[in-house]
Amino acid sequence: MCGIIGYTGFREASAVVMECLQRLEYRGYDSAGLAVVGGQLHLFKKVGTIGDLAADVPDMQGGTAIGHTRWATHGEVTLANAHPHTDCRREIAVAHNGIIENFQKLRQELQRAGHTFASETDTEVVAHLIEDAYEGSLPQAVAAALKKIEGSYALVAVAREEPGLMVAARRESPLVVGMGDREQFVASDVPAFLPFTKRVIYVEDGDLVVVRPDSVQILDPAGRQADREECLITWDVEDAQKAGYEHFMLKEIHEQPISIAHTLRGRLSEIEPQVLLEEADLGETDSLAIVACGTSCYAGMVGAYIMEQLASIPVATALSSEYRYFGQKRGTVIGVTQSGETADTLGALRAAQRHGCRTMAITNVAGSTATRIADATILTRCGPEIGVAATKTFTSQVAVLVLLALKMGLSSGVLQTDAVRGYVSALRHLPSAVTRVLDREEHLRQVAQTLASSRYLFFIGRGIHHPLALEGALKMKEISYLHAEGFAAGELKHGPFALLTPETPVIALVDDDPVRDKMLTNIGEIKARKSPVIAVAPDHDAE
Fold first, then answer.
1. What is the C-alpha to C-alpha distance for residues 338 and 364, in angstroms, rounded to an integer?
2. Please, what's the b/e burial string for 38-50 (b: 16 or more CB within 10 A of its CB; e: otherwise)?
3. Which residues touch 530 (CB under 8 Å, ≥6 apart)?
4. Do 3-239 and 244-438 agree at the fold level?
5. Using CB atoms within 10 A as the burial measure, which of 16, 162, 323, 462 is most buried?
């Protein structure tokens, strides 16, 4: 997940961009680079850390600069492949996130026209396309280049001949403008420039942004002046710092009691009882689908299970990347996305709208693209999530989906008042329940040590615990780099059993519910294969 930052203003741009790059380190990277416009176009790149890059960047004049942190996608981790990329004459520099799908064809055409390439990346094509179209106006050259590009991008470009100017654009990849006093920022995420300004504009798909120290001009895909809403960020720099924790993910795991409480605040009433979600009016619908990616999809699967139980309405779940190929033609589609900028989920919501479906977004970011394109929005309100792996946003997404299920059950008459009162009470106690789990961190560390030498692991569950098993396996892969698979426990006998050995730990999710006995049977079958079993179960379940 690469990071982009651009700055133009009254400060020394190289120092500002280096500071902003450090605030994007949470996104992960293998190399970093910086381009500064100051008389010449000065380019600095480094394979390694931003600290390594900073050691190579001298104090220098220049009020405009762009920076980038790269995760390798096209081309290996080399100095040549690090961003920013330049044209043949090193007059133009570009930093880019996304994938240029037709870059091979464009590269061949440019090479036939005499352009020489220094890297293996798709991004370098953009710099040469801008060079090809450049006639003294960077905005016009970027606009011409983008017409030839297929794929996704968030990019920012600068030119030696036009100091004090940045041109940015986006398609299916997030980009945000930060507006200051005599200075402006362009970034892939708000934390990059948060110490400097809280005034932002979220760039929309197809927008071209012309940025000068004293102005921001946005052009729509037709080249017309576009008015985009200015938003004020309500969280602080401190929220985007580690607060004494070793890393952001650990901090955000421990923030869950507070984040869940924020998600629920003002949305529950035990007096009536009722769920106060005025923004969640789905109207009458006989068909409901939840679309999402990764962790958000597993939250959606949990939500679908609860909705079917509490509201007696069938709910389909689909990966956003697949939904657009077979999406439903009626009813309501809910897109779940932490950032509100997940390209596949935005595409799925747009596809649903083309089919005449009503749409809703569940997201954590007010003003994001999802909130602008959906017919209705519910904010998770759990604060910024800086860690790459979703933690507190997952639990807040599930909390919102439970609220929505309760509201639907009440509206349809499926749920009775006493039942709702019980669920409302349980939700109010949820933050303290999470705190009790977090208090066992030392015990969990000891369990983790027993798994650290494993080559691969299984997670199993039934019913509502099946998507939780999938989420557990995803986190294990994403964070520990150990291979893990999540299964519905009843499916072990249809193939996965062949992989069970004494070296294959199985994490079993067991609750005091109607499928408990079946889970115990599955555990017995696993132990017969001599695979170690770690059960995640209620305190009172000694068995």
1. 5
2. beebbebbbbebb
3. 501, 502
4. no
5. 323
Q: Find, among 514, 515, 506, the residue nearest to 536 by Cα.
A: 506
User: What span, in angstroms and rounded, lies between the C-alpha atoms of 4 and 24?
Assistant: 8
Name the CATH superfamily for 441-536: Glucose-6-phosphate isomerase like protein; domain 1 (3.40.50.10490)
The token duo for 81 is 């492949």
Residue type, 229: E
CA–CA dist 79, 31 (Å, integer)? 8
pTM of the full structure: 0.81
CA-CA distance, 297 to 315, in Å (whole number)? 13
Q: What is the dihedral of CA 256, 258, 261, 266, to 10 degrees?
A: -140
CATH for 244-438 (3.90.550.10, 3.40.50.300, 3.40.50.10490, 3.40.50.880): 3.40.50.10490
Tell me the C-alpha distance between 531 and 500, whole Å. 6
Q: Give residue 279's identity as a one-letter amino acid code.
A: E
Q: Are 238 and 195 in contact (CB under 8 A)?
A: no
* C-alpha span between 20 and 461 (Å, rounded): 43
Q: What percent of the chain has pLDDT over 70?
A: 97
- Give the whole-angstrom CA distance, residue 364 versus residue 91: 40
Please tell me the distance from the alpha carbon of residue 261 to that of residue 122, in angstroms, as a whole number. Answer: 44
The domain spans of the chain are 3-239, 244-438, 441-536
- The gap from C-alpha 96 to its chain's centroid, in whole angstroms, comes to 17
Tell me the one-letter amino acid at 298.
Y
Residue position matching structure tokens 């440019």: 110
Name residue, tokens 């352009």: 115
Amino acid (one-letter) located at 361 = A
pLDDT in tens, 139-190: 999 999 999 999 989 999 999 999 999 999 999 888 999 999 999 999 998 9
> Alpha-carbon distance 311 to 413, whole Å?
8
* Residue-by-residue DSSP string for 48-78: S-HHHHHHH------SEEEEEEE--SSS-S-
Confidence class for position 74, pLDDT limits 50, 70, 90: low
220 close to 206: Cβ distance less than 8 angstroms? yes
